[in-house]
């Protein structure tokens, strides 16, 4: 008989709800999953009634306002850490020390030092810890990784990865916690660049050296009203934005190839413009999140006048067959989190890490810290 995996969720904004949905759907897509998630408790101190709505919509058994009470709860085996960045380290370390498994959204800590504290706590406790690098779970991305590793496009020469968004493009948007380093740690670096760095390292090779420029295009914003999200209008006094809106980096990868990484949270006209291009000596692959089910491939041709062909992800690619029966039946963002949940559950059941782990979060955090150092000191930095 499949035993229960009793779940507690800390923070019930959008991402907390995504985690709850993913765990609730797990057995629908993976009926052979070794554990059956049960939503036991949610902790959130938002001023509105969203925890009450959570109980009604998701079936949580206990509604709490203090995450410490959730972490100490005897009926919780897994803690999802989905609140603001400034609580991630404290919640994750406490949960690991209490013997709970973890599903931590990125950035796991506000810095690599905080992330390393989570890693140490996880290793000392012997628990499993997944990190929310969902884009690596896209079936087309899995195929791209296989193509690169197979040598089908030859030796990789250079990679371009872009994560562009407009969620902070409005200069009247509130000065929320995301813009203050005490609470966020960084700006677009932790939010989007951590994803981009993980994709480069997952698909191609570890980043060995980098040089970075970063900018803050909207230097001041009006203070937020209590409980406001980062995209809502500010209404208070003007305050300083303490972190970066934009990052541009040159990369040298461990395999000797080169790369360009660009990311912005203030790019008007861009919504979730996330993707990469990998160019090799014999071809190339390119992927765009906005066309998630498609992979553009240039391979098996001559050096000159080669062209891309679009390949559609099918049941043999990644985890697509758990969601759709045939080629070019697309999956969506929430489905990627179900894949994450499946891999975490397998990790917990077997004691062997599967999928993106807290160690991958630490690798990305080290890239972010190196980018800050490079930008501050205007120099190449070796990781």
TrEMBL record:
Domain of life: Bacteria
Domain GFO/IDH/MocA-like oxidoreductase positions: 142-285
GO molecular function, a single term: nucleotide binding
Gfo/Idh/MocA-like oxidoreductase N-terminal domain sequence ranges: 5-132
InterPro entries found in the cross-reference section: Gfo/Idh/MocA-like_OxRdtase_N, Gfo/Idh/MocA_oxidrdct_glycsds, GFO_IDH_MocA-like_dom, NAD(P)-bd_dom_sf
Entries under Pfam families matching the protein: GFO_IDH_MocA, GFO_IDH_MocA_C3
Keyword Endoplasmic reticulum applies: no
Alphabetized Gene3D superfamilies for the sequence: Dihydrodipicolinate Reductase, domain 2 (3.30.360.10), NAD(P)-binding Rossmann-like Domain (3.40.50.720)
Presence of the UniProt keyword Oxidoreductase in the record: yes
Keywords annotated in UniProt: Oxidoreductase
PANTHER family assigned to the protein according to its UniProt record, in alphabetical order: BCDNA.GH03377
Name of this protein: Myo-inositol 2-dehydrogenase
Source species: Aeromicrobium chenweiae
């Amino acid at each position: 008989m499949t035993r229960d995996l009793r779940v507690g969720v800390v923070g019930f904004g959008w991402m907390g709800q995504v985690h709850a949905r993913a765990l609730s759907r797990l057995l629908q897509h993976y009926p052979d999953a070794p554990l059956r998630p049960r939503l036991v408790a949610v902790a959130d101190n938002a001023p509105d009634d969203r925890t009450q709505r959570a109980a009604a919509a998701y079936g949580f058994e206990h509604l709490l306002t203090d995450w410490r009470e959730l972490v100490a709860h005897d009926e919780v085996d897994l803690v999802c850490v989905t609140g603001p960045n400034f609580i991630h380290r404290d919640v994750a370390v406490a949960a690991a020390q209490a013997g709970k498994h973890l599903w931590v959204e990125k950035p796991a800590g506000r810095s690599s030092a905080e992330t390393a504290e989570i890693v140490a706590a996880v290793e000392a406790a012997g628990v499993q810890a997944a990190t929310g690098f969902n884009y690596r779970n896209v079936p087309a991305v899995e195929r791209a990784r296989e193509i690169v590793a197979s040598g089908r496009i030859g030796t990789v020469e250079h990679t371009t990865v872009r994560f562009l968004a407009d969620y902070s493009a409005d200069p009247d948007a509130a000065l929320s916690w995301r813009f203050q380093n005490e609470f966020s740690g960084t700006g677009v670096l932790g939010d989007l660049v951590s994803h981009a760095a993980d994709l480069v390292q997952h698909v191609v090779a570890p980043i060995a050296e980098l040089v970075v420029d970063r900018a803050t295009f909207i230097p001041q914003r009006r203070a937020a009203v209590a409980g406001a999200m980062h995209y809502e209008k500010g209404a208070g006094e003007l305050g300083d934005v303490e972190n970066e809106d934009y990052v541009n980096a040159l990369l040298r990868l461990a395999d000797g190839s080169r790369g360009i990484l660009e990311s912005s949270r203030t790019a008007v006209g861009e919504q979730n413009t996330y993707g990469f291009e990998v160019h090799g000596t014999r071809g190339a692959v390119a992927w765009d999140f906005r066309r998630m089910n498609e992979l553009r491939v240039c391979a098996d041709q001559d050096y000159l006048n080669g062209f891309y062909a679009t390949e559609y992800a099918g049941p043999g690619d990644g985890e697509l067959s758990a969601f759709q029966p045939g080629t070019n039946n697309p999956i969506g963002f929430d489905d990627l989190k179900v894949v994450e949940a499946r891999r975490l559950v397998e990790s917990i059941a077997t004691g062997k890490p599967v999928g993106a782990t807290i160690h991958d979060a630490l690798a990305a955090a080290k890239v972010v810290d190196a980018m800050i150092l490079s930008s501050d000191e205007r120099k190449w930095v070796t990781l």
